[in-house]
Amino acid sequence: MESELRKFQEFALQAISSAQSSADLEHVRVQYLGRKGQMSELMKGLKDVTSEQRKVIGQVANEVKKKVEAAFSEREKTLEVGERKAREDEEWIDISAPGTASAQGHLTLVTQAIEEIAEIFSQIGFVQVRHPEIDWDWYSFESLNMPKTHPARDEWETFFIADGDKVQTGEKGKVVLTPHSSNGQVREMERGRMPIRAININKCYRRQSTVRHSPMFHQFEGWLIGENVNITHMKGVFDYFVKQFFGPDRETRLRPYHFRFTEPSFEIDISAEKGKEDSKLYKDGWLELGGAGMMHPNVLRAGGLDPEKYTGIAFGWGLERTMMMKSGMNIDDIRLLYKNDMRFLEQF
Ligand code: DAH
């Protein structure tokens, strides 16, 4: 039995020193020293020997066990140190290394254009104002000299807010998604601050969805109302805006037109970019930008102003269209601007 114990010691020490990880070592421990391990098995033999031999063997067994246990804890420590070091090496980070920047987006094209346009007008004293985009018939049409049954209204392809089939009405008529930024005109006059020099940029809605029309789009609309305001002021404002926005060599032209809420009314054209006069974009070297005019006396009256005392200019243009004209952006469907397709948006 003694020699078996020695052999046990030899194998156990061998196994301990060849264990390569704490997990290996734990297996070794169970195998040799565990409750059902080899040592316990060996000790069962004690009951078959004389008490004389038992004393000697008991001593040897103790000695062996101590040695194996000592070797075990020694190896355990060594392995743990090694493993901790390996973990530290693996988890080490260089906190002085430059970071990885997360991807940065940018404002959408439309927001960029809104900011740029508002900034240009602010340089000539126009404050940016906001008015409701869900509004009453009165502000969207009637106060703008478009009586209830007037056919001119048809052009505005209006969405009405309905509950089932029943169009909602409020204090000032039917409720609409405003089809143009002009709904702010009388609202701005009602604020009662004169003179008015404001730019209203907002979403508009029309029942139209084609490559050239998105059912939701933006307009920017300016108003200058005060005493002695006249058409030369209008021309001055347009020239300033167009040169700032499109470039110093661009010019504006007023072309007679008709709107119910202005008298006289105009369409504003801008001259072609130099060298591109023959492009299909232009007609005889000019491109239409949007509508404008001197505010109709009925509109001023609707806003509580005396048309004998005050006059005003008003102009309203499509924002997406103006923006696309500037960049020369040639997109074949305006609705792309609102599809949120990253492949499109990331190009700008
Ligand atoms: N509201 C008009 C439209 O949606 C545009 C417009 C024309 C606005 C003339 C004006 C204006 O302020 O004076 O087509």
Describe the structure.
This protein has 348 residues and is an alpha+beta fold. It is 39% helix and 22% strand. The chain is built from 11 helices and 13 strands. The chain has a 7-stranded mixed β-sheet, with helices on both faces. Strands 2, 3, 6 and 7 form a 4-stranded antiparallel β-sheet that branches. The protein has a two-stranded antiparallel sheet with strand order 4-5. Strand 4 and strand 5 form a beta hairpin. Helix 1 packs antiparallel against helix 2, helix 1 runs parallel beside helix 4 and helix 2 packs antiparallel against helix 4. The model has no long low-confidence stretch (mean pLDDT 93). Bound molecules: 3,4-dihydroxyphenylalanine. The site of 3,4-dihydroxyphenylalanine (DAH) has 11 residues, from strand 12 and strand 13.
Please outline what is shown here.
This protein is 39% helix and 22% strand. It is built from 11 helices and 13 strands. Helix 1 runs antiparallel to helix 2, helix 1 runs parallel beside helix 4 and helix 2 runs antiparallel to helix 4.
* Major sheet size, sense and barrel closure: 7 strands, mixed
List SSEs in N-to-C order.
Answer: HHHHHEEHEEEEEHEEHEEEHEHH
As laid out across the biggest beta sheet, the strand order is 1-8-9-13-12-11-10
Shape: rod-shaped
Helix content: 25-40%
Bound molecules: 3,4-dihydroxyphenylalanine
Q: Give the radius of gyration.
A: 43 Å
Q: What is the number of helical segments per DSSP (H or I, 4+ residues)? A: 11
Which stretches of 5+ consecutive residues score pLDDT under 50? none
Give the helix/strand class.
alpha+beta
Strand content: 15-25%
Number of strands: 13
Round the mean pLDDT to the nearest integer and report it. 93
Distance between the termini: 87 Å
